[in-house]
Amino acid sequence: MTSILLALFFALGTQAAPHTAAWQATGTLLECCTCAVPCTCNFGQGPSPNAFCHTIYAYRLKAARYAGVTLDGLIFGGGEGPQGAFGFLDSRATTAQRPALQKLALAVFAKGGASPGERRFAWTRVTAEDNARQFRIQFEGSGGFTAEVLLGGDGKNPIIVENNLTWPVHRFIKGKTTRFDYKDPLGNRLHYEGTNANLGEFHLSGIETSHAGRVPRTAEASCCSLKR
What we know:
Elements: H1 2-15, E1 18-33, E2 55-66, E3 69-70, E4 75-81, E5 84-90, H2 98-109, E6 120-124, E7 126-130, E8 134-139, E9 143-149, E10 160-162, E11 171-183, E12 189-192, E13 196-211
Parallel strand pairs: 5-6
Antiparallel strand pairs: 1-2, 1-13, 2-3, 2-4, 4-5, 7-8, 8-9, 9-11, 10-11, 11-12, 11-13
């Protein structure tokens, strides 16, 4: 009897053993929301002029690794509205990269801005582009946004906001949407123009902990009214 109990104890201990995965990610975040320019949420205030702040965003990876898997050049993002949060993963990822890219996306979302926790994802073509005058993202089949860079008083250089309270980006170039048209399988439908947009570089890292033998739950959308 004693040997059986010991065997059971060691078996349970093995299943509960923690596993860690280190990750690093640098690149560019492109984001817009339903707030007027500038988004008051970035300054630690409530949404304006609406009682909500719904958003779509894309993280374009310059250099990234998750548990030793290289993810350079890929993109992930999401959209968040009254029906919850949905995620998008770059369909260019290889079979070996796909689990790591999804885990990296969830780790980055937990750093701020996006709703943390599990959500549904779709593998699709994701476009994220920027230049000195504008920036845009597009999720194939679900829409996206285009924004103009807002210039400062000299008429040459962009307006910059630093140390915002919402997204894990220290320095944001401010923009204003000329197109904001988004839909997803959750039923979110966002159609706006002339709203806030942000463009900035991120430098993030962390260590994720999981347990052997634990079966991951099916990813479900998390609520994202974003009443910050």
